[in-house]
Amino acid sequence: MSTETAPAAERAAAPSPAAWAEARSRVYAVGLAAALPVTARPIAEADGLTLAEPLTTRTDLPAFPTSSVDGWAVRGAGPWRVVGRVLAGGTPPPLTEDGTTVEIATGAMVPRGGTAVLRVEESDRTPEGLVTGTPRATPEWREPGEEAYAGEELLPAGTPVDPAVIGLAASCGYDTLPVRRAPRAALLVFGDELLTAGPPGAGRVRDALGPALPAWLRRYGCEVGPSDVVGPVADTLPAHVAALRTALADADVVCTTGGTMHGPVDHLHPALADLGADYVVNTVAVRPGFPMLMARLTGPDGRARFVAGLPGNPQSAIVALVSLVAPLLAGLQGRAMPVLPHATLAEPVSGRGDYTHLALVRLDRAAGTAHPVRHVGSAMLRGLAGADGFAVIGPGTTGEQGSRVPVVPLPLLPGERAS
């Protein structure tokens, strides 16, 4: 057992909340230690995955001198006698005599022996068919290695693959890329009081997390299928143990909703103890969402599996998602620990005493400001629907208007970059 974890049976009763920043670092470290296997994927299928090795050039870029304009590749002083034509994709014979030229297209290989490229719009033809004009002083071709030299590292391992990376890899001649496979995630929804269809009423509430969390997880790069979402799971210990055991057989990360406290029908902690789990984090000093947890087990294949216990209140569950699940998934994918951007508070935000406060905000990216939103109770989702992320108000502080604070962004689609 590592020094970072303790058996679920030992620590469930009286956990000591981890500081929010420490909890993020801890789950990232265990995720990185359990980074997912490497696989080769066709470049067109690699979007949203993560480079497992540095992307290096296989040749100089460009690999040969290429004309940057339409015109004439000339040798020596003019006028020049036309001896041929070279188009993109062809290999021209060398120019061996001064006073000769070949017509050349943009992107075509400049023939060996060429001393300049004359733009077509700056050229003329004599009645005898000779080409005249004055080439510009700056060469009108791209030199080999102008963008990169053969073997040069263009991107490090851990880089998320997006369309720009795919295009760069293709330009280097790659057909496949070594990437970390996507994390497989499952979701178990706990709570007999939950409805899965129709409006709430008669003491029962509609499950909002079962439909929503898989979409959030996909935005973090996870694979989540319809059969990976199970619930509501019956409020009994045997049902919780069976559901967890089944989900952990295939998933790298199992998220659960509800049951993270120690009430009469909160069976998550006893279920984790029954399965032999170790806690990575058991409660976090953050509001909302403090009864979140992350536990680790060893699967039948010897690989680590993780259970992320998210509180049942919807906004608290998303706080747990961005606090614990996001850094864990970054580690599993071999990515760097997410660096939080900063924004200036447009309005004051209260602190939460000794706890970190994650306050929902809407970002004005042009102005670099964060604006608190309304309807932010832990059971509410209205504020979340209009927010871009959470402003981080540190323990023992308040967010004064005009102060610069970190912001935890809500996840984007795989490969998408924030503006």
Automatic annotation (TrEMBL):
InterPro entries with a match to the protein in the record: MoaB/Mog-like_dom_sf, MoaB/Mog_dom, MoeA-like, MoeA_C_domain_IV, MoeA_C_domain_IV_sf, MoeA_linker/N, MoeA_linker/N_sf
Pathway listed: Cofactor biosynthesis; molybdopterin biosynthesis
One cellular component term from this protein's GO annotations in UniProt: cytosol
An example Gene Ontology molecular-function term: molybdopterin molybdotransferase activity
Pfam families: MoCF_biosynth, MoeA_C, MoeA_N
Enzyme class per UniProt: transferase
SUPFAM superfamilies documented for this protein: MoeA C-terminal domain-like, MoeA N-terminal region -like, Molybdenum cofactor biosynthesis proteins
Region feature Disordered, mapped onto this chain: 123-142
Catalytic activity: adenylyl-molybdopterin + molybdate = Mo-molybdopterin + AMP + H(+)
Any GO BP: Mo-molybdopterin cofactor biosynthetic process
Residue ranges of domain MoaB/Mog in the record: 186-331
Annotated EC: 2.10.1.1
Cofactors required: Mg(2+)
Alphabetical keyword list: Magnesium, Metal-binding, Molybdenum, Molybdenum cofactor biosynthesis, Transferase
Function: Catalyzes the insertion of molybdate into adenylated molybdopterin with the concomitant release of AMP.
Similarity annotation: Belongs to the MoeA family.
PANTHER family associated with the record: GEPHYRIN, MOLYBDOPTERIN BIOSYNTHESIS PROTEIN
Name assigned to this protein: Molybdopterin molybdenumtransferase
Organism for this UniProt entry: Micromonospora costi
